[in-house]
Input
Amino acid sequence: MSLSDRKTNQEPIEIAVQESRSRAVTWGFLYTFPWWALLLLLSGIWIAISIAANEIYSNIFQQLREGITMTLTVAGISYSFALVIGLIVGTIRSNPPKPRYGIIGRVLSIFHIFIYNLATLFVMIMRGLPILIVLLIFAFVILPAFKDYMEANYGIIIAFRGSSAESAIIALAIAYGAFLSETFRAGIQSVHKGQIEAARSLGMNYFQTMRYVVLPQAIRRVLPPLGNDFVAMIKDSSLVAILGIRDITQIAKISSGSSFRYLETYVTVALIYLVMTIIGSLLVRFLERQLAFEH
Output
């Protein structure tokens, strides 16, 4: 068979392959389109219209609006402080202590051993305790004792109570700081050691290496899990209701107890939390795609 005959026989095969590929591309959107997001959007529109049209649900939602602001405020501020705590503790735990030489080096090694083990102890305790227990211990044990100590020894009066939004913010920040520290530690340790050695060979000290080489890469890599933790923070902020803080859950508890409309009230509460967490999850997915595209 000549070369021209082979090309003639291959042409129908190539044409068929191209046609099948074009059909696959034409209908490919059916497989990649986020149908679940469309379903959620349509469901959300229908629920919003139903709540606006129903007087009972509309009144319940109006009562819960104050709680939405409090929930987002507590979650946002707590998470911001947790990021700072997690970054500091994660940076300490990402660098295990090593022996150093000389008098100054040995002193620094002892200090390094102390803060490393202190950070590890903090992470182990906070990760081993339920967040609800952390809230209760901080609000009714640690904070009152600290207030009495500061007033008795230094004359400093701390205004906010244990069952206040400020107390809940601090407790949530401490608890979540331990979880976020492990995320930061994993991100820092994922940076190749060769880059750190190259930075040190260029004359950078430890802090310059962390600031200009390690942390920019580590934070970029852990942004998606950090976003997921913020979504979890929104849900866990409902625990502050046990302190009497007027978030969504607490207002719903008081409202349903006085009106006896438990079904309508808690269905509305569930929908509000669902909307907030879904929006947060969609933002995290968008962030993941952006980072993957840039990478």
Notes: The two ends are 49 Å apart (CA to CA).
